[in-house]
Amino acid sequence: MKRFIQFIAGAICPSCKEKDTIAINVDDDEIYCVKCDFVEKRPVDPKSIKPKQINVINLEDYKKNRDKN
């Protein structure tokens, strides 16, 4: 079975500066150049990343609960 290579049209390799040589590995979203050894993780849209949940504790409530025990 032949492996399908998906190229990014018009992309220029940051390493060798060749045009139309950047391809995407669809299995792990790596981008790579078919002419040189350039490999990079595909950029992620910052809007698609969910912010980490932060637990906020009121210090005064914490002190009150600690003193009761």
Task: Itemize the secondary structure elements and their pairings.
Blueprint: E1 6-7, E2 22-25, E3 30-33, E4 39-41, H1 59-68
Antiparallel strand pairs: 1-2, 2-3, 3-4
Give an overview of the whole structure.
The protein is an alpha+beta fold and 69 residues long. The chain has one domain (6-68). The protein has one helix and four strands, in the order ββββα. It has one helix at residues 59-68, and strands at 6-7, 22-25, 30-33, 39-41. Strands 1-2-3-4 form a four-stranded antiparallel sheet, with no helix packed on it. The longest helix has 10 residues, at 59-68. The radius of gyration is 24 Å and the shape is rod-shaped.
Instruction: Name the overall outline.
Output: rod-shaped
> pLDDT average, as an integer?
83
Rg over alpha carbons: 24 Å
Residue stretches low in confidence (pLDDT < 50, at least 5 long) are: none
Instruction: Work out the count of structural domains.
Output: 1
Q: Which strand order do you get reading across the main beta sheet?
A: 1-2-3-4
The proportion of residues in beta strands is 15-25%
Query: Number of helical runs?
Result: 1
Major β-sheet profile: 4 strands, antiparallel
Structural class: alpha+beta
Helix content: 10-25%
**Counted beta strands:** 4
Order of helices and strands: EEEEH
Q: N-to-C terminal Cα separation, in Å?
A: 68 Å
